[in-house]
Design a protein that fits this description.
heterodimer; A: mainly alpha; two-stranded antiparallel sheet; 14 helices; globular; disordered N terminus; B: mainly alpha; 76% helix
């Protein structure tokens, strides 16, 4: 489809007369151009349009009116919209903190048996959540967390029947419940990334530490953590983006309810743009969301890359 | 020694526990799917008489045959083109190293963090203006663009490590740049390209947002998008919904189990690079 036409690069004057390097600059650009054009036409143009829409009041059909930054002030003052942003940050606790902390702890514990057959089986099993559509995870967990679901069944077996409830339907527990689904999806990935990172650590370091009388905790803090800097950075980045930009799981399990308790920016943009026909506000929220992601991700990248360079 | 053994045992127990938690949702789907239609089974109760027929009903209700074809067509539309464009761009940015490459690369890197929700609204209006709404192209065209940053990033990471001498030798033998690319670099890049293909396949197949926004007809969506519609339609019939969900996640599961090694390393590397 996108074979670059060689005609322009090897045009008579340039290719023959110029030095090899000069030709290659042109050829290089020709190789990049198709990808760049597609990227620019689809993503670049849409980014520009999102920003443009965000400055107007528009119902998607009729004429639009210029409102300047009015939509942005609405994003930060409307309790529903701002609440969605706050929820996204609360989800970071579940989507990022739990998988990273728990993943580190588990990886450190099973480091010694990382090459056993059990661990190889576990590698496959723990990857399952990455492979299935998030929507399917949402459906499966909605059922687990339902009032007659497995979670409540287990609770009543443990004699905790009185705390059982429809976890996703209760204003107080819906957001943590959605968070648990996200943690389930991301824990395996983080754990395996850490484990892969740990396999690159020189075992002599651990032996030396043992001889010096270091316990598992000391070992973890002094050897494992510093060596996994890059992996931790990656996990935090991936999971923070997953939290801030969450959509699939919430759309399927709660639709943002009950009473907006699980509303997140991604879902709010979808509702605003396609059901409530407030394209301007939706776009302003979209711009804010994209900026938030960049603002959160850049420091993580700087912090974790510092050492390696 | 004793400490080490105790650690190994705690490790094993932890692993088994973690695997149990990972599998539990699937198990619960499976057991529930075997209950009589329109009942509300409790937790993990095995039914008196398993209703295997639910899977057949769900297969029909979800139009699984059509869905498989539709998802495959979308994957075939997205993946080859993305691979070709990204390999060429990665080759230029990583190996040819022409002037201005840094700026181009930075442009792509900035796109890596982009949440799809951020540009879904203008995508809708652009796709509508092109008259592609409710066709598979509505998913294919935007996805090619949206996957481009990661794909280019991935391929560049491969080409950056290719020694310069490789190309110089071929140039002396009289190969032009196009031959050099196809005869030498593409074959050498096969592992990187096939890992990228796996990732793109997975992300396309599981794409949800674009499918529900840009395509109304579930039969023209991706698998994940169709599952959304299926839930809307059969959400009250829990056993059927569970059977349908299982059917819809089976294809990726099967492909994952066949290509596990490739998958795991692709996904691990994929997130490391991303």
């Amino acid at each position: 489809m996108a074979r670059p036409t060689p005609g322009r690069a090897t045009g008579p004057s340039r290719a023959r007369s110029g030095a090899g390097l000069r030709t290659r600059v042109w050829v290089g650009w020709l190789f990049v151009l198709p990808a760049l054009a597609v990227y620019g036409a689809i993503v670049g143009r849409s980014l520009f349009l999102t920003f443009e829409y965000s400055l107007y009041r528009w119902d998607g059909i009729g004429p639009s009116t210029w409102v300047g930054l009015g939509n942005y002030s609405k994003v930060f003052t409307d309790p529903d919209l701002f609440g969605a942003i706050a929820n996204a940050f609360k989800l970071i606790v579940f989507f990022s903190a739990i998988p990273v902390v728990l993943g580190l702890a588990i990886a450190a514990t099973i480091r010694r048996i990382a090459t056993s057959r059990l661990a190889l089986v576990a590698r496959t099993v723990l990857f399952l959540p990455q492979v299935i559509p998030l929507v399917a995870a949402g459906i499966a967990w909605s059922w687990l967390l339902a009032s007659t679901g497995l979670v409540n069944q287990l609770l009543s077996h443990l004699g905790l029947g009185h705390v059982s409830r429809a976890w996703l339907g209760d204003v107080g527990t819906a957001l943590p419940a959605v968070g648990v689904i996200g943690a389930w999806v991301l824990l395996g990935l983080c754990m395996l990334l850490f484990l892969a990172g740990m396999s690159k650590i020189d075992p002599a370091l651990y032996e030396a530490a043992r001889i010096d009388g270091a316990g598992p905790l000391r070992e973890f803090v002094s050897i494992t953590m510093p060596s996994l800097r890059q992996e931790i950075g990656v996990c935090v980045t991936v999971t923070v983006i997953a939290a801030l930009a969450s959509f699939d799981i919430i759309y399927i399990s709660t639709q943002g309810g009950p009473a907006n308790a699980t509303m997140v920016p991604g879902l709010e943009i979808y509702y605003l743009a396609f059901s409530e026909r407030q394209v301007g506000v939706a776009s302003a929220l979209a711009v804010v969301l994209m900026l938030l992601v960049v603002v959160c991700v850049l420091p993580i990248q700087w912090l974790t890359k510092e050492d390696s360079s | 020694m004793i400490v080490a053994r105790r650690e190994a045992w705690t490790g094993r127990l932890l692993l088994i526990g973690l695997m149990a938690v990972t599998i539990m949702p699937f198990l619960s789907l499976f057991v529930t799917a075997l209950h009589p239609a329109r009942t509300f089974p409790a937790g993990l109760d095995w039914p008196d008489r398993p209703h295997w027929g639910n899977f057949i009903d769900a297969f029909r209700a979800a139009h699984m045959g059509e869905l498989l074809i539709s998802s495959t067509l979308i994957v075939l539309g997205v993946v080859p083109v993305s691979l070709l464009l990204a390999t060429m761009a990665g080759f230029a940015l990583g190996h040819l190293r022409m002037a201005g490459r840094r700026l181009v690369f930075l442009t792509f890197v900035l796109g890596l963090t982009l949440p799809f929700e951020g540009i879904i609204t203008p995508l809708y209006y652009q796709v509508r203006d092109m008259g592609l709404l409710n066709t598979r192209w509505a998913i294919i065209v935007p996805l090619i663009g949206l996957f481009m940053p990661f794909s280019v990033f991935w391929m560049r990471a491969h080409f950056v490590n290719m020694p310069k001498e490789l190309s110089e030798g071929a140039r002396i033998d009289g190969a032009n740049i196009w031959q050099l690319f196809w005869r030498i670099h593409v074959p050498l890049a096969t592992p990187a390209i096939s890992s990228l293909a796996i990732l793109l396949f997975l992300w396309t197949w599981n794409q949800f947002l674009l499918a529900i926004v840009l395509v109304d007809d579930p039969a023209k969506r991706t698998m994940a998008g169709a599952l959304g519609a299926f839930q809307g339609q059969w959400g009250t019939d829990i056993p059927l919904l569970c059977a349908g969900s299982l059917l819809i996640l089976t294809p990726t599961l099967v492909i994952f189990l066949i290509f596990q090694r490739r998958f795991v390393s692709a996904l691990l590397q994929g997130s490391l690079k991303g």
